[in-house]
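Tokens help. One example:
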Amino acid sequence: MEQTVEKPEKKIMLVDQNAYFASVEQQCNPELRGKPIGVCGEGRTIIVTASYEARWFGVKTGMTLPEARRLCPNLIPVIGNLDKYIDTSLKIHKIFLEFTNKVEVFSIDECFLDVTETEYLFGGAVEIAKKIKKTMAEETGIKCSIGIAPNKVVAKIAAKSKKPDGLVVVGGDEVKDFMAAIPVEKLQGVGIGRKISQKLKYMGINTAKQLGEADLGLLKSRFGILGGFYKNIGLGLSESTVKDYSGQIPIKSVGHSHTLPQDTYDIAVIRSYMLLLCEKTAARLREYKMKGRTVSMAVRFGDFDMYASRDTLKHYFNSGVEIFNLAMSIFEKVLPLQKPVRLLGVSISNLAVDDRQKYLFNDFEKKSKLLEVMDNINKKYGDFTLRPTSLITAEKYGILGRCGIISTRLIK
């Protein structure tokens, strides 16, 4: 009679760098350590990330700078620097890779690790987590929270449950009890967004336990095929595996946003700023040797209402003009404007590596070489030394080239 061998329980961990952008800024500038800071863009901007010293006063991501300062008068605004955050993130990835090659980048400040097959080399998953926390603190100054569980869903929730600098372990036989009291709004980030969590609460489903116990037919009637997916999340179940680090495109999307100096209905001003954002996004894409197919465009109006949409082309591109044309075609859906525009944002995703292959047609080859020459000149003499003439309006209306970061997200 054959004897069945039980597979070892999976050991998946989610490493979440605490207040990441703010922590990087505090490490780069010792004078900011221990002080309330808010990472933001230029001008009438919003808080991207706040340090824990600022969060203590109630400062949150998405607040306008005036709102944050009302809560925390001593708040120090710091203009975000994307290159620093990416550089630090890549250094942290190297630390993870010392323990396993199964490292999946979920976002710029979060990674999943599967140490099931390697934990015995380092004294177990908990010891690996402790070593990661120690090494990160010593080499980068960044603290992190780590959740360890049998799957990605529970590991992520566990990491979020104790911040900052936490370490939470949930064994397979503890999943049910751990998930029981988790509010549905805390399931955001593991597949259930804010709107879905609100719909669940309207249905009387307030906790993960209630979601797991909900009638499958009811969930499917409300959410279609995703009903079963949501039920599994409530039960703390997930079959999703952790990807191998090699072969992953390190950046998921690249983009910029800018809050206008004053709210405006002026389409000429809006078009000029839109082109500015598209050119900056394209320049960063080329710097990363990337190209993309999907353009996302976001508008925040004077009353803080938001409109966002995206469109995808069949071919890859990384020129500002192509990004601009697609972004403006999306923007035209909100015309004529019913209220003034406060903020514009553009990002490009669905990325691939730009292998700089020779183009078949001469006009594409000439355009590629022209962009390369322009990038080299702007790197040497400063951003937008060479620029489209249509940026003149934006230059007169505000400060050219000093746009707040919207995102350069690492692959999910």
